[in-house]
Structures are given as structure tokens and as C-alpha cells.
Amino acid sequence: MIQNGQLISLLEKSFSFWDKISDLEKAALMDNISDIRYEKGTCLSGSDDSCAGVFLIRSGTLRVYMLSEDGKDLTLFRLNPGEICILSASCVLKLIRFEVLIEAETECRILVANANFFSDLAARNVWVENFSYKVAAERFSDVMEAIQRIFFLSVDKRLANFLLEEIERNNTNVVPVTHEQIARYIGSAREVVSRTLKSFYVLGAVELSRGGIKIVDKKLLQSMSK
Amino acid sequence: MIQNGQLISLLEKSFSFWDKISDLEKAALMDNISDIRYEKGTCLSGSDDSCAGVFLIRSGTLRVYMLSEDGKDLTLFRLNPGEICILSASCVLKLIRFEVLIEAETECRILVANANFFSDLAARNVWVENFSYKVAAERFSDVMEAIQRIFFLSVDKRLANFLLEEIERNNTNVVPVTHEQIARYIGSAREVVSRTLKSFYVLGAVELSRGGIKIVDKKLLQSMSK
């Protein structure tokens, strides 16, 4: 469990409305926060009411995505430690009319603020409401970036960018994911990813194996990403 | 020119923060609003500073879209009379990190609030800032709908939906647009639109002519849109 002092300093840092709510509200908010560990792969988006709670990520990565009826998957953005997920509590934001899916991409440690409590607080206090909509606006910007990437970049550029980001993020030169997973991340089809990877291999940028994709010429990949 | 009384009642109705600002601020806001008529086809998004102003649409339709470097066009949403465009004043919203293009799709009459004035007001008054982010959240929802439509619906469904919306909107059974324009609106290519329209014609849903597309079997089109 998280210590009280540690929790207060985290909330103070993450919730910009902290000094705009009363001491009673602060105490109540703390009572309505759970410190939860999620296994990799857990689906965190709510059931029917779509109000799973406001998430403050302590460790791990969340992936926020959409799924079509026939299973097409579109990654909108990822959230990392220190970031807040408000789309998991769309009941807080009356003007957000859509729902997204959220999964723990790695094992995650998350502070979950009860959605109903948070929603009541936002209804009473304009600073809390404004904070919530501001977090949503940041995610709006993330989604617009995803659209630009997916609509306006060709598959080879998207793939090169993805591989570069992954080796940057994990600090290795091997990306241990399947072609199927890559297709999902970059909004394409497995066959297209396999074909494009093969062309990268022929050009000498990557090596392909069962374990994943090994980047052998980062500079070449960088020039292909532009 | 718009009459003062009419302007006040419009602002009162459209700006939910109206009773949260002082009388001085109300007067200053009114002084910083211009009533402008735009010709069809005018580009309304700002130049370098991307802060053209906050738009309150009195008549006409605005189209908000993105354009790739190689000219690919993606319609995000449209705005109609009574609606507010805040993405035309991204300087008001510090957390909005992207820019969009805005064009007058028809002749438009728009109340334009000076972006710098509005930005200062939002910085001083949390109700104004919150109002701005709430308007952005509505547009976020619009964009998510566009993504779902473009990513997850096949071209024939998108095309059927587009034609149905157009005849609904204009209250006729003829849609007087080129295949090129349709491709832009539904996020596809002209060739694909032409081919799909031909299949609609073969099925007996539409007739094609130089003047546009005539819907001859609305029910069939409706069944094809689902």
C-alpha cells in the first residue's frame, strides 16, 4: 500500500486543483482512491457504465485504443507513469460522447479514483471540472497526432517510426513483437507489415527472426522514417 | 451590423460563462466581437499564429479538416449555426497542440471574438477557460466519430451514409457534388468513389449525371448504410 504522505505529495503534483478543494474534500478524495496492481494484458475500461475511474499511473504503460465490430484495432495513444487517464471515467465529462478501450500493456501500478466520487466533485467545483477537461484536451492532441500518423504517413514510414520508437523506449536494438501486433499498433494489416519488413530486410535495415525484429542499420531506418 | 440587444441575447445563450464575468468584461467582450460575412470557400484558419478568433456561427456551415503534405484531405467535422468554433483560437487552449484547417463550406455569417482578448479573459477567469475546454471536448467527440466512420466502415457504407446525410441536410434527393469532393468528405480516393457509385447505380439505388447524384431508392441506400 502507498503511504499517506506519499499519496498526498503525488496528488498535489498530479491534480492541479488540489489547492482549490477543501481539506474535507481532500480527505474524502484520498478515501476514494485505491492503489491497484494490474497484470499485463488486463482490460481496464469499464463495463456497461464506462466509468471505471480516474487513473493516475504510478508504473507501467496503458494502451488506449478502439476496436471495430470486425476486430480492427486502432491504437490512439499510450499513457506512462505520472500521466492521468480521464477517458476511463467518461461519466465525469458529460461532453465526451465516445468510449475507448484501455489495456495494461505492461504490468501496471495505478491509483484509481472512484468515478462517481470524482464526478460529484467536478460537478461542485469548476476547478476540478476544468482540470478534467484539460486532461481530455491533451488526449485530444494525442489522438490528432495518431490520425496524422495513420492517415498521412505511408506504411513504410509508420513502420520505420514504430521500430525506432520501440528501440528508443526499451533501449535495445531488438523489437520482440509479432507482425500481427505491429499491424495493430500502426493501424495496418499483418500481410502488409510482413511485406514491408521484408523490404526493410532486403535493404539491410533489419534482420528478422522468430524472436522479433533486430535493427541492424538505425541510420538507414531513420532516413526511411522521413 | 448586428444590434446590441440581439448580440447580448446571442452571447448570453451561447457563452455559458456569461453570468460569471463582470459587466466591464461583458462590455469589453462585445467590443472585441466582429460580425463578419465570409464567401463560400474562404479559408478561415489563421496564418502563422493560428489564432484567428473564437467563432460563433450565425448562418452557414464551416468544414474543419486536415490536409497532408501531398494534398490528402480529411474532413473532421462540420459546424452549423449556433455552434462555436474554438479550434480556430488554439492560443486560448494551451493544451491543444495541433492545428486544423477551417473553410466556409457555404456563405457564412460569423461573430468573431478576438483571440487575444478571449485568451486573456480565459487566463483570468476559470469559467471562461472551462467553457473553452468543454467546447473542445465536444469537438473531440466529433473527431472520434469521424475516426470510427473512416477507419471502421467500409467505403460503400461511408458513401451510403454520406449521400443519406446530404439529402437529409439539404432536403432534396439530388446531391450536387463531384466524385472528387465526395472522396474528400469520406476520406477515400476519387476512383474508389466512382467505382462504388457505379455499383450503387447497378443496384438501382442512384442515378448518375453531370449535375450530381440522384437518390432513387432511399430505402435501399439505408439498408446499404448499415
Question: What does this entry look like structurally?
Answer:
Two copies of one chain form a homodimer. With 226 residues, chain A is an alpha+beta fold. The first copy, chain A, has two domains: 4-151, Jelly Rolls (Sandwich); 153-224, Winged helix-like DNA-binding domain superfamily/Winged helix DNA-binding domain (Arc Repressor Mutant, subunit A), CATH 1.10.10. Chain A is 45% helix and 21% strand. Chain A is built from eight helices and ten strands. Chain A has helices at 4-14, 23-31, 115-124, 126-152, 155-170, 179-186, 190-203, 218-224; strands at residues 33-38, 54-59, 62-67, 73-79, 84-85, 101-104, 108-113, 174-175, 206-209, 212-215. In chain A, the strands form three sheets. A four-stranded antiparallel beta sheet of chain A has the order 1-7-2-5. In chain A, strand 9 and strand 10 form a beta hairpin. In chain A, helix 3 (115-124) crosses helix 4 and helix 6 packs across helix 7 (190-203). Chain A is elongated. The first copy, chain A, starts with a helix and ends with a helix. Chain A binds chain B through residues 66, 68-69, 72, 74, 93, 95-98, 126-127, 129-130, 133-134, 136-141, 143-145, 147-148, 150-152, 187, and chain B through 66, 68-69, 72, 74, 93, 95-98, 126-127, 129-130, 133-134, 136-141, 143-145, 147-148, 150-152, 187.
